[in-house]
Amino acid sequence: MSKLLIKPKETPDQDGNVLRITPESAEWDYVGFEVYQLKKDETFIKPTGNKEMAVVLLSGRANAKTKHKSWDNIGERMSVFDETPAYTVYAPNDDEVRLEALTDLEIAVCTAPGKGTYEARLVRPEDVDVAKRGSGRMEREIHGIIPEEKPADSLFVIEVFTPAGNWSSYPPHKHDQDNYPDETYLEETYYHKINPADGGFAVQRVYTDDRELDETIIVNDGCSVLVPKGHHPCSAPPGYELYYLNVMAGPIRKWRFTNDKDHEWLAK
C-alpha cells in the first residue's frame, strides 16, 4: 500500500476519531487533518494550542463554541453529496472548539501553524465562494471555505465536487517549490468521499516531473491522500461521484502553482 494513502479506522476511537494525520506522521511541517464521527448528544472538545483550526461540518447539525463565541444549531446538509456549502468554525491558536452534536455528526478538523492574527468566526454557507472550474470532462464545482482571499494565518480549506466520469485537479499541477511569485510550497491533504460508497472508488496520481515520485492510488470512501510534492490529479469513474476536501498550508499563504508542461495545453 502506498505510504501516501491514509485509510480510516474500522471503528471510531472513544472520542470519535476515525482518521488522523499530523505533521509528524506525514513527515512534513504544516498541515494536520483529522476526521471525527459523533453520535447525537455526544460532545467534541479540542484545544487549538499553537495551531489555527478550521472545523468543517461534513454532515449533521451542532451547537458550537469557542472560548469567546458561540453559535447554535449550525449545519444543514446530512451528506456532503447534498452539494450545499458547509458550515465551518474557525478558531485561532490558544483557543478551543467545542461541538455538541444535535444529530449524528461527521466533522473534519484542519490545522496549521497559527499566529493569532484573526478572531474565531463562523463561516456560513453564504460566505463560501462557489464556482465551476474546468470544462467538459474536467469540470467540477469548487467551494472556497477558506481560500486565499479569506483571512487565515496559514490554512487553505477547499471542497471540490467532481461529477461521475470526470477528472479533477486537472490539468495536473504542483506547488512544491518555495519560489514566490512563480510557485509556492504548500503541503496538501485530500479527504475523499465516494457516492455510492459501497464498491465505489476513485483514482489519484501523485508524481514529480522526474518520476522520482510516481504513484497511482486507488481511494475508497473515507480515505485521505498525502501530497508532499508533485502533481496530483484525480478521477471519478463513471457511476461514482467524487467529493474531496483539500487542506493546504506552507511558509507563505499564497497559492501559486505550475502546470505539468505535457498537459498545460488543456488549460488554454
| Relative strand content | 35-45%
Number of helices: 1
CATH class: Mainly Beta
CATH architecture: Sandwich
| Number of separate structural domains | 1
Mean pLDDT, all residues: 97
Shape: globular
The ordered H/E elements are EEHEEEEEEEEEEEEEEEEEEEEE
Strand order of the largest sheet: 1-20-17-22-14-13-12
- CATH superfamily label: Jelly Rolls
Considering the chains and any ligands shown, give keywords for the structure.
globular; Jelly Rolls; 23 strands; 268 residues; seven-stranded antiparallel beta sheet; mainly beta; single chain
Describe this structure in words.
The protein has one helix at residues 23-26; strands at 5-6, 17-21, 32-38, 43-47, 51-59, 62-65, 70-74, 88-91, 96-101, 105-113, 121-123, 129-133, 140-146, 156-162, 167-168, 173-174, 187-195, 202-207, 214-219, 224-227, 234-235, 241-249, 258-259. With 268 residues, the protein is mainly beta. It has a single domain (5-267), classed as Jelly Rolls. The strands form 5 sheets. The protein has a 7-stranded antiparallel β-sheet with strand order 1-20-17-22-14-13-12, with no helix packed on it. A 6-stranded antiparallel β-sheet has the order 2-3-10-5-8-11. Strand 6 (62-65) and strand 7 form a beta hairpin. The longest helix is centred in the first third of the chain and has 4 residues, at 23-26. The termini are far apart. InterPro entries: Deoxy-glucuronate_isom_IolB, KduI/IolB_isomerase, RmlC-like_jellyroll, RmlC_Cupin_sf. One of its GO terms (molecular function) is glucuronate isomerase activity. It holds the Pfam family KduI.
